[in-house]
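Researcher: Please translate sequence to structure tokens.
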Amino acid sequence: MNVLVIPEDFRNDQYILKPIVNAMMKSLGKETAKVEICRNPLLGGVTEALKWEKIEPIIDSYRMVNLFLLCVDKDCEDGRKESLKNLENRATNKAFLENRPYSFFAENAWQEIEVWLLAGLTLPKSIKWKEVRQERDPKEKFFKPIVKERKLESGLGGGRKTLGEEAAKQYARIKQLCDEVNELENRIRNL
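Model: Translation complete:
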């Protein structure tokens, strides 16, 4: 299985998404799945990632991909899920019309991709998980202080590579704490 993860901006998100999606594939019994991050084009933000005219050329360019996963931040946008569902519908219609065997799923993290990473870490006792999920800006309030405390600011992705790999080792915990990750895994399982 060839999996292409499409982040809204790969420059930092790749370090979280690749290890977590690899862990997800293993959880699904797809140990040999090849997970890649879409680096061409650089979408540069959620607004661009939600445009069909940006997603369709990616699908057309990566003809050997069986599973496309668009992963974006929710950013407190109530209509985000509907926008993602519309993209999924268009991609499904395209696959059907072109008789091409691929699947396309889109998911938003609550509120930011960094929350998935935080779910896999042992957090300081001062941080309650409920607070992380309710926070509008969890990257600033929780993720960045952990990076600073662990002196990872100069690491790849501002510490995301080290912490993403660490978090992915606790994938079961991520899908337990992040309903959207568990839901995405179940949707892929039901292909």
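Researcher: Any highlights?
Model: The domain at 2-189 is CATH 3.40.50 (Rossmann fold).
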